[in-house]
């Protein structure tokens, strides 16, 4: 889907997921740790939106906030999370439970540990039908087999009665995907869904996720640290660093003309080609601690182009249509 | 919000509340242990009467102003006897834990350091000792060794050897996996020097923490043996033999049974809390370990 | 499944043999002690020599052990020095008492430890967790024999709802039998429950922080579903294995508890053997208590294995 298409969609209905000015803090002994800071992010219908960042950038916390599964010690101080226009914040837990699994589902990073080792795969994949539709287990199991077939698991009938440890990594992730799409939720949150898998399996799972978007008209928030995966999967991308969105825009534009030095460094660090195992650690320095953030731009300590203005944090400045970046140099570059 | 994810907090998320709670445990444990240990050391000074003075005229008196915790069947002051009994408990526990610590430490380090068949034989034997119910093993050992305080110390000490050896072995293996041990080998350090310079300092903390927990259990075991008449012998007071005698007077003088039990509770609880607290301070990784 | 049982049994037999060897050597290691025990301290050297020859105690230790073992596997545990009756039948008549006590105590311990441990874990670092943890810590510091004494004081002497001690076979009078076992089982069970509770809590906390629990939550499962369907079985697998070992370690308390409540079990026989320095009785009864513990461990281990599909179902084709 092109950027123009996105602009068009904006007109008719609210985004599937709309995060506005979201700030999440933890209380710590050394003061409040702001792990997510004023994040605004939209996922429009049938889009796959990438949220890219290193570990500790706040991308996983953002995802947990969407699911309403933040740790107890975390607090959303400002902002809003809206699902198809309706705010999720302030909803009682019981109501959030009716949304999780039905409106929003999750595809995890590590399918091996995300599957319950003592329950049969079929029961786990079919459980959403029991939880949300009040189905009996027999019906749920039939549905589970159907879903396992949807994700192209061979011999779904037999596999449904097996246990997770009898599955390969790729099959486990297919099962998790089947579980996620069980009730055709409008939004999937995929948290590094291919990081724990072999490269060849990665490609298969990515293909499967794209297919799901196309056939089930699902929208996806795709969390990753791998730019190559973003390039392959996403329509739109948000670059996150130390709790902040540093750059956002359509994938084509950002890859063609990265506006923020951080994104530029990411792109340089990513080997071209299918087998990209980009480790963002290759950028010198490390992500600042959320209790000890720099005063101005978040990236200032690691930025090769820093100058006196960087003591003051820039707003998201327009690079071009459908593309903004949080860097003073954007303007000077024109 | 669900609680399960509390575990997923990032490492830097403050634990100040938890810290305070743990510190409180340490404080309470320290006070209880202090009470017991000080009673043991200054028993002669603080106890109002001699624990041995018999006066049948005042036998089985309930707690009163002259005898705060009453008197026993021979008219002896219960408070004085309980205070003096702390002596036996602390002494037996200290020696027994030392026996276990040194024996288990040596065996565990040897097993961990040499590995291979040495490790297998030693640890198999430790497992075997561990498969006996603790008190049963102590009782059988006492039966063979003969009834005396010294033998009680030995018997209880032997029971602790497997536990300490496991810990010492695991800690030794941990240390051996570190890079610097390999470096020490390459620069030609001898086994003995590596053991004393590198391994010992690194495993002393977990062993010390475990020793506190063992202390609590040693107090309990000594009381059990004395209760059965296999430990401290009358008229020498110990919490176990006081309770055993008190048992016979439960209907007429319940304080004789209740008081030594409370003393045991204080001692065991104190050492347990102290052990838990120290475990958290020294090794947060063990916080939730069983 | 059968293979599982076979491997557990294969590990059980050598352990029992090894424990019997340790006990045998421990009891017989001091030369002449058995004879002195049987004949009195002032027995003449001649009398001791004759006794040792009669009992075969003058043979090398390993010969004695093999001889004893050969008879023991056929149920012959020798005769008591004291009353010259065979020890085997005595054990058989006392075993049901100890087993009943063990099973009841184990059930009580788990009935308290599992739900409270799970509850504390679910409310980890909240008030309820603190309350339960304090309860467990204090209870864990209570000596079982003191608890027994206090229970007798309250329930038998003051309120007079339960008999203070004694034994009636279950077949003879079930109600009376159970009423006699309540306090002994509580004394052992409550104290063990404190320790098991801590184990259960730790295991449950571990499980509740795992990824598959997060998956269940993300599916929209309610807390009770998460606990019962997703967490409990996983926690029990490790809890049972660790818990059984800990329980066994504490189970030596039967020796004291049976003595206090006048229960004619094997534990009491251990004490009888010690007081009379009756080595055949001591050896046989101590071994029996140990074997009961080992067997219980094995059974619990098997139950834990059955709960774990990774042990029952081999990896398939994939």
TrEMBL record, chain B:
Positions in coiled-coil regions: none
SUPFAM superfamilies: MetI-like
Main location: membrane
GO-annotated cellular components: plasma membrane
InterPro entries tied to this protein: BP-dependent_transpt_permease, MetI-like, MetI-like_sf, OppC_N
Entry membrane topology: Multi-pass membrane protein
Organism, scientific name: Candidatus Segetimicrobium genomatis
Subcellular location, record wording: Cell membrane
Top-rank lineage group of the source organism: Bacteria
Keyword annotations: Cell membrane, Membrane, Transmembrane, Transmembrane helix, Transport
Residues that span the membrane, as ranges: 25-43, 92-114, 121-143, 149-168, 199-220, 253-275
Family as reported in the entry's similarity comment: Belongs to the binding-protein-dependent transport system permease family.
Span of domain ABC transmembrane type-1: 86-275
Classification via Pfam families: BPD_transp_1 (PF00528), OppC_N (PF12911)
PANTHER family, alphabetized: OLIGOPEPTIDE TRANSPORT SYSTEM PERMEASE PROTEIN APPC, PEPTIDE ABC TRANSPORTER PERMEASE PROTEIN
Single biological process term from Gene Ontology: transmembrane transport
Record's protein name: ABC transporter permease
UniProtKB/TrEMBL annotation, chain C:
Entry GO terms, CC: plasma membrane
Transmembrane residue ranges: 101-122, 134-158, 178-197, 236-261, 281-307
CDD domains in alphabetical order: TM_PBP2
A Pfam family it matches: BPD_transp_1
Entry keyword annotation includes Cytoplasm: no
SUPFAM superfamilies given in the database record: MetI-like (SSF161098)
PANTHER family: DIPEPTIDE TRANSPORT SYSTEM PERMEASE PROTEIN DPPB-RELATED
Record family assignment: Belongs to the binding-protein-dependent transport system permease family.
Protein name: ABC transporter permease
């Amino acid at each position: 889907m092109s950027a123009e298409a996105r602009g068009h969609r904006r007109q008719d209905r609210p985004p599937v997921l709309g995060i506005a000015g979201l700030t999440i803090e933890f209380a710590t002994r050394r003061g409040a740790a702001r792990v997510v800071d004023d994040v605004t992010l939209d996922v429009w219908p049938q889009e796959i939106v990438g949220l890219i960042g290193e570990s500790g950038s706040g991308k996983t916390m953002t995802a947990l906030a969407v699911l309403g599964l933040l740790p107890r010690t975390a607090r959303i101080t400002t902002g809003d999370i809206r699902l198809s226009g309706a705010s999720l914040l302030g909803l009682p837990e019981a109501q959030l439970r009716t949304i999780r699994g039905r409106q929003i589902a999750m595809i995890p990073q590590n399918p091996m540990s995300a599957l319950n080792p003592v329950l049969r795969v079929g029961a786990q994949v079919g459980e959403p039908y029991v939880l949300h539709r009040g189905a009996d287990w027999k019906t749920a199991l039939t549905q589970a087999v159907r879903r396992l077939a949807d994700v192209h698991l061979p011999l779904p009938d037999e596999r449904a009665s097996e246990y997770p440890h009898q599955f390969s990594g790729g099959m486990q992730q297919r099962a998790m995907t089947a579980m996620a799409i069980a009730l055709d939720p409008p939004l999937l949150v995929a948290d590094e869904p291919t990081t724990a898998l072999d490269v060849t399996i990665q490609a298969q799972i990515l293909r499967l996720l794209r297919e799901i978007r196309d056939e089930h008209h699902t929208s996806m928030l795709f969390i990753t640290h791998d730019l190559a995966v973003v390039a392959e999967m996403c329509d739109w991308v948000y670059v996150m660093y130390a709790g902040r969105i540093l750059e956002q825009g359509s994938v084509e534009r950002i890859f063609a003309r990265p506006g923020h030095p951080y994104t530029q460094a990411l792109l340089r660090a990513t080997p071209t080609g299918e087998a990209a195992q980009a480790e963002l650690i290759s950028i010198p320095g490390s992500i600042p601690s959320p209790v000890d953030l720099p005063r101005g731009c978040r990236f200032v300590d690691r930025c090769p182009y820093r100058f006196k203005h960087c003591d003051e944090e820039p707003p998201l400045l327009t690079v071009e249509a459908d593309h903004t970046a949080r860097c003073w140099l954007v303007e000077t570059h024109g | 919000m669900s609680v399960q994810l509390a575990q997923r907090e990032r490492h830097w998320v403050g634990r100040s509340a938890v810290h305070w709670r743990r510190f409180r445990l340490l404080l309470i444990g320290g006070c209880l242990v202090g009470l017991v240990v000080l009673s043991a050391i200054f028993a002669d000074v603080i106890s109002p009467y001699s624990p041995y003075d018999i006066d049948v005229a005042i036998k089985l008196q309930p707690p009163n102003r002259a005898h705060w915790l009453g008197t026993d069947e021979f008219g002896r002051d219960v408070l004085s006897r309980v205070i003096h009994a702390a002596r036996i408990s602390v002494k037996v526990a200290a020696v027994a834990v030392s026996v276990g610590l040194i024996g288990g430490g040596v065996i565990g380090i040897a097993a961990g350091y040499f590995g291979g068949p040495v490790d297998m034989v030693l640890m198999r034997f430790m497992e075997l000792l561990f498969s006996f119910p603790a008190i049963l093993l102590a009782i059988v050992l006492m039966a063979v060794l003969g009834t005396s305080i010294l033998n009680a110390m030995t018997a209880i000490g032997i029971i602790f050897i497997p536990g300490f050896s496991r810990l010492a072995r695991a800690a030794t293996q941990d240390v051996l996996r570190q890079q610097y041990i390999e470096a020490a080998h390459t620069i030609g350090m001898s086994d003995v020097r590596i053991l004393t310079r590198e391994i010992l300092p690194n495993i002393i903390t977990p062993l010390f923490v475990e020793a506190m927990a063992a202390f609590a259990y040693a107090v309990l075991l000594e009381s059990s043996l004395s209760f059965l008449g296999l430990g401290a012998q009358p008229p020498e007071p110990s919490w176990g033999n006081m309770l055993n005698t008190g048992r016979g007077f439960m209907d007429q003088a319940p304080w004789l049974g209740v008081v030594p039990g409370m003393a045991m509770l204080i001692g065991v609880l104190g050492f347990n809390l102290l052990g838990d607290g120290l475990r958290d301070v020294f090794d947060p990784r063990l916080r939730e370990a069983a | 499944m059968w293979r599982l049982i076979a491997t557990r049994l294969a590990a059980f037999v050598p352990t029992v043999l090894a424990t019997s060897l340790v006990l045998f050597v421990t009891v017989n290691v001091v030369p002449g002690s058995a004879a002195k025990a049987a004949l009195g301290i002032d027995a003449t050297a001649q009398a001791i020599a004759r006794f040792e020859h009669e009992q075969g105690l003058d043979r090398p230790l390993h010969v004695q052990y093999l001889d004893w073992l050969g008879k023991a596997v056929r149920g012959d545990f020798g005769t008591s020095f004291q009353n010259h009756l065979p020890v085997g039948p005595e054990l058989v008549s006392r075993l049901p008492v100890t087993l009943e006590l063990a099973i009841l105590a184990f059930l009580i311990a788990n009935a308290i430890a599992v739900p409270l441990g799970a509850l504390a874990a679910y409310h980890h670092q909240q008030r309820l967790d603190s309350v339960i943890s304090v309860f467990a810590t204090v209870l864990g510091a209570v000596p079982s024999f003191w608890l027994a004494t206090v229970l007798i004081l309250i329930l038998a002497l003051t309120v007079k709802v339960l008999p203070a001690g004694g034994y009636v076979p279950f077949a003879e009078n079930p109600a009376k039998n159970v009423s006699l076992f309540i306090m002994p089982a509580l004394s052992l069970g409550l104290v063990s429950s404190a320790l098991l509770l801590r184990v259960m809590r730790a295991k449950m906390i571990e499980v509740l922080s795992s990824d598959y629990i997060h998956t269940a939550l993300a599916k929209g499962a309610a807390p009770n579903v998460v606990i019962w369907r997703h967490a409990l079985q996983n926690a029990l697998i490790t809890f049972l294995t660790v818990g059984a070992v800990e329980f066994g370690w504490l189970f030596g308390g039967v020796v004291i508890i049976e003595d206090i409540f006048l229960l004619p079990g094997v534990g009491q026989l251990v004490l009888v053997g010690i007081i009379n320095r009756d080595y055949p009785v001591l050896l046989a009864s101590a071994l029996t208590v140990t074997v009961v513990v080992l067997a219980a461990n094995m059974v619990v281990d098997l139950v834990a294995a059955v709960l774990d599909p990774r042990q029952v179902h081999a990896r398939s084709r994939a």
